[in-house]
Specification:
Length: 666
């Protein structure tokens, strides 16, 4: 496989921002108030909108809403928030959105879903995943029931150790990739630019020239777009759904499904489009060739699927099927295994790039006469950044991993095969894949995962039953956290600010999350017609989950239909050949990864508007604005997310008030 050369587009991202010379502590009483604000307003809004529209951007929207609100309050108190304080608020809101109590609603649905019941999985689910289907809590629609105590306890355990490990171990990988190997992290400035826009507005008195305030003007444009679109796309269905029980939508949520009509001509091809304007902006933000690659991958399925249908491989699909059933049936017949092969090819390609980069870096160090011996020592860090000693990182890694293994062993009655699998995943796979991802993130902004490792380890353990799938397994990829720490560095925020914030934030958000989960469940059954996204998509998610869970039932299962070694091998070979050919031809690195990824049955609903956004950004706005466009569009995106967050927060607040205060008769 030929080496991919870094292209000019990545160089544009690297030149956007530089690391400041000083670092500030962003943790103070403002952070505590921010945690309470996020817990009371942002968490319920994110949960509700996730069910309604499935908008992943609500998490980022909550970050901008929180930061802007506190900036405005501080102004009226004659105080300006620093970049570090704004970044801590931003981080805090985003971290709160990532906590897993939203999974409680999924748990109560999955154990009672048709897919879990039909496959026999529901009866075998452990009590720390969900109470048995005959629990009185389902009729009462409440998590405040003793049957849910084991589930809540497991969530608290996983949340605490997950946050501890990702925060500390992600920092350790950042030290290696950033301080020792001096990697550029081209994607990090995308998020940091929005923080700089808010900081400019908060400290506008120090800006004397009008052109120095461009970030805030651009941010405001994005915010106005978000408010206008959010009012139609999310606020209208939110309010009408709350008042009448049937949401009125101008733009279908989550997408328009054209598959039943186009199936006459495009056999076994899922078609449709998402009307979320955020996808258009998202396509402008990300590198152009990444969007092009994803679109080419989508087009390949438009050609490949009819061929596979005609030769009898996609045999389960029949005309008239919608998107959900088409994707599921195609997964069972072919793409479940083929996608594993494609992912293996991507993983091999990513690991190969890391190995080549490490060798080149070592050779450069040997050849350089200007590099002093020992200059790459792990202790050589910028002064005042708030770093900790390396031995503490290693100690946390061993403590967290062993805790996971011991707790899982106790839950699984110390099954020998499972224990060996846990040791492999915790002490071999996790450090290896985390380092590879950290280096790939630092070089080209890509994440690499070796597919089916967890699943293969658990299946080969010899355990029978589905309990093994719900253990707290010591497997994670901490490499992606390195980008967050790079953003922290770019904004001049001390790392200790982040760690102190985590200690304060975690208990507040845990209490808030379970309370609002319970409240939302009490309003309506989840999923139901009130929540269009969950009502449409959760069935597909349950069906796909049952494919894997059925592998350890000890009897014939859907997994045996879906898992075919021939298709895995064909995916690996085909993906590897394509990767090599594009590399030899000198294709941009992001185009290569995008095309290969797109072969795994890319759905068109978000890809098409994202590709249109990429074209609009590159061939119109970039020609008008030049390199400044690369600085402007991340700030526009941040403003758009903020506007969407503001308008949806209003809608969710009105919904909760109406449901809590007015018992409707319908």
């Amino acid at each position: 496989m030929a080496e991919i050369k870094l292209d000019k587009e990545l160089e544009e991202f690297r030149q956007v921002m530089e690391v400041p010379s000083t670092f500030e502590d962003g943790f103070n009483w403002t952070a505590l108030l921010g945690a309470i604000f996020v817990a009371l307003l942002m968490v319920p809004g994110a949960i509700y909108m996730g069910l309604l529209a499935g908008v992943d951007s609500i998490g980022s929207a909550s970050q901008w809403v929180t930061a802007i609100l506190f900036i405005e309050v501080a102004k009226r108190a004659q105080k300006n928030l620093t970049r570090a304080e704004i970044f801590v608020l931003f981080f805090m809101a985003g971290s709160a959105m990532g906590l897993p109590f939203g999974g409680l609603l999924w748990n109560q649905f999955f154990i009672r879903s048709e897919a879990a019941t039909a496959t026999g999985i529901a009866a075998d689910l452990p009590v720390w995943f969900a109470p048995s289907v005959d629990s009185a809590s389902y009729g009462l629609r409440t998590f405040f029931h003793r049957d849910w105590l084991p589930v809540i306890g497991m969530v608290i355990f996983g949340t605490f150790f997950g946050q501890l490990s990702s925060t500390i171990l992600g920092y350790g990988l950042f030290r290696v990739a950033n301080d020792i190997e001096k990697l550029p992290f081209p994607m990090a400035p995308i998020g940091a630019q929005g923080i700089m826009a808010l900081a400019e507005d908060a400290d506008e008195k120090s800006l004397t020239q009008d052109q120095d305030k461009w970030r805030w003007r651009v941010f405001s444009i994005g915010g106005a777009l978000g408010l206008a679109f959010g009012a139609v796309y999310l606020l209208l269905p939110t309010l009408t759904g709350a008042l009448t029980g049937e949401p009125i939508t101008v733009f279908p949520i989550p997408f328009s499904d054209f598959t039943p009509q186009t199936g006459k001509y495009l056999k076994a091809v899922a078609t449709g489009i998402s009307w979320d304007f955020g996808n258009l902006i998202f396509g402008m933000v990300l590198p152009f060739f990444a969007m092009v690659g994803a679109f080419i991958g989508l087009l390949s399925t438009f050609v490949l699927n009819p061929v596979l249908y005609n030769v009898g491989i996609l045999q389960s699909w029949t005309p008239g099927r919608d998107t959900i059933s088409t994707i599921y049936l195609n997964n069972v017949d072919f793409y479940f295994s083929f996608h594993i092969g494609i992912a293996i090819a991507i993983a091999v390609g990513g690991i190969y790039q890391v190995i080549k980069s490490v060798r080149s870096s070592r050779q450069a160090q040997r050849d350089s006469a200007t590099l002093p011996k020992g200059s790459a020592a792990i202790g050589a860090v910028p002064e005042g950044r708030g770093d900790i000693r390396p031995w503490l990182i290693i100690a946390v890694y061993f403590f967290v991993t062993m805790t996971y293994i011991l707790v899982s062993g106790w839950l699984i009655d110390w099954h020998r095969g499972v224990m060996l699998a846990l040791l492999f995943l915790g002490f071999v796979y996790t450090p290896l894949i985390s380092y590879v991802t950290a280096r790939l993130e630092g070089m080209v902004g890509q994440v690499v995962e070796v597919p089916f490792i967890r699943e293969a380890a658990l299946i080969l353990s010899g355990f029978q039953g589905v309990t093994v799938w719900f253990l707290p397994i010591p497997m994670a990829n901490y490499g992606s956290m390195t980008v967050f720490y790079k953003q922290c560095e770019l904004t001049g925020t001390k790392f200790t600010s982040i760690w102190k914030t985590q200690v304060i934030l975690l208990p507040i958000i845990l209490v808030s999350s379970i309370f609002f989960m319970n409240f939302i469940w009490s309003l309506n059954e989840v999923p139901s017609a009130v929540y269009p996204f969950a009502d449409m998509m959760w069935k597909l998610h349950a069906q796909n989950a049952c494919i894997m869970f059925s592998a350890t039932l000890g009897e014939y299962s859907i997994f045996e239909d879906a898992f075919r070694f021939t298709y895995i091998l064909s995916g690996t070979v085909f993906g590897g050949l394509l990767f090599s050919i594009m590399s030899i031809l000198g294709a941009p690195v992001l185009l290569t990864f995008g095309v290969v990824r797109g072969l795994g049955q890319t759905t068109p609903h978000a890809v098409i508007p994202q590709f249109l956004g990429a074209l609009l950004g590159r061939y119109y706005f970039r020609r008008k604005l030049g390199l400044r466009w690369r600085q402007y569009i991340p700030v526009v995106s941040a403003g758009f997310a903020c506007g969407m967050g503001l308008i949806t927060t209003v809608g969710v607040g009105i919904t909760f008030l109406s449901k809590a205060a007015i018992p409707l008769p319908f």
